[in-house]
């Protein structure tokens, strides 16, 4: 990958594309690339929807090669939801396709005239930007159908739904999967709103004629690939649990541990969670036919294959297999235990282009605020439909849980830096609370997945209910995650990488063989530290202080049943997390 595509959406006479050599950003990929460009080129105090913000889309360092699991796409900008730096990543096909066309990053810059909407075609012949007026306010599914009719089916699409066009702070960016469906989302932080502010409805990628990225040392690459795949296949989580039941295998596990946030974080267990567990979901999907449950990768080259397809009662495609976070957000968090309703909510979120975690948390807050009753699935569906219609209520909900909590006078709003917490209560899983509080991203489990060590016994064991050892655990995981997010690897590889001594060296060897480098484990750790420091410096310049690294008050005051614990990490200890 040797070039960067910059599109100035505000150029006189219409959008102007320029392809430049990678230059100072050589060697970066994924999150290292997005955070590198954003921190260097975006003024930290700019308005996230203004002309000075940039949307950076970057394949990982190993994307475009034959390395298994290397198809994640990073999207970065200043976040309209948090006001800080943002990296959200997604699976799907676009990362591999962009990398094979030689692009290390696409940077959308400037601002078009109000109301202008474009689509961008990228293929081996170059870049073409045309009007997307015929796609205005279409959902992601209809958008992709129209694009397919125009460009055929051997393409990948990165698009926004109506929420992105309305520049709502919960808006996501969709990437198409192997079936050319818009099911894989860079969900968090309102990245879709920034794409909407740039007036880009869709980026169409046609990689016909492009070759697989070849490693500098093919023999060493082949050898590392073999060890890498063996390590992933051997681990019980990446080799058995995730392929059999998908990520929703976690529902029973986290519920049993007492850390499953229920009805807007009121309890740590959901009485009827077995009705929405991964085991129940897999049985339902198998019973309804199709290709069966959990045998599906979101991009070519995935060997964990944690995904699947959800069919409705009539056996028709409804959505991809809802993931654990979605099943929790729209399920237990809202007191809903009906998988068909949850799958419908997932479909609506994907179509309107909103983050399922933010929307589920928002509906939970709305329920606490009296807009609907906990457990009322039809009411939840109706509320999400308001977002798609762009009614005043829908625009409030589509702006996320923090805004919704303010509008409806709710005190218990589970957000950090304005972003909703995911599916683990920090009082039942104290380590993840440190990550929620301190990550540069706002509450985000993927930034340092302490659940692995607190609950799953991966990478050691740290008691989830005690404060001891949690900052160190979160710190190390945040550093490792920032590095992994730069490779293009799906984060689920971390289960094997943390446990199997052969796995991490194999990953480093892949990078070395790809680029003819001689990186060591320490170099990778230093890359992670560098990324985190860069992001934190941006946030500090944007106005964040240590008081932004705290959980909402109710987590310190309300004990969470069944363990009846509050969040126990002191402010002073939280402030040591970035001591490196
Ligand atoms: S493990 Fe799951 S999320 Fe990761 S690349 Fe494969 S299908 Fe996508």
Question: What are its keywords?
Answer:
alpha+beta; 16 strands; 580 residues; binds iron/sulfur cluster; 6-stranded mixed sheet; single chain
Chemical compounds bound to the protein: iron/sulfur cluster
Strand content: 5-15%
- Radius of gyration, taken over Cα atoms and rounded to an integer in Å: 22 Å
> How many distinct helices?
23
Q: How would a crystallographer describe the biggest sheet?
A: 6 strands, mixed
Mean pLDDT: 96
State the strand order across the main sheet: 2-1-6-3-4-5
Rounded to the nearest angstrom, the distance between the terminal CA atoms is 31 Å
Low-confidence stretches: none
Number of strands: 16
Q: Helical percent range? A: 25-40%
Q: What would you call the shape?
A: globular
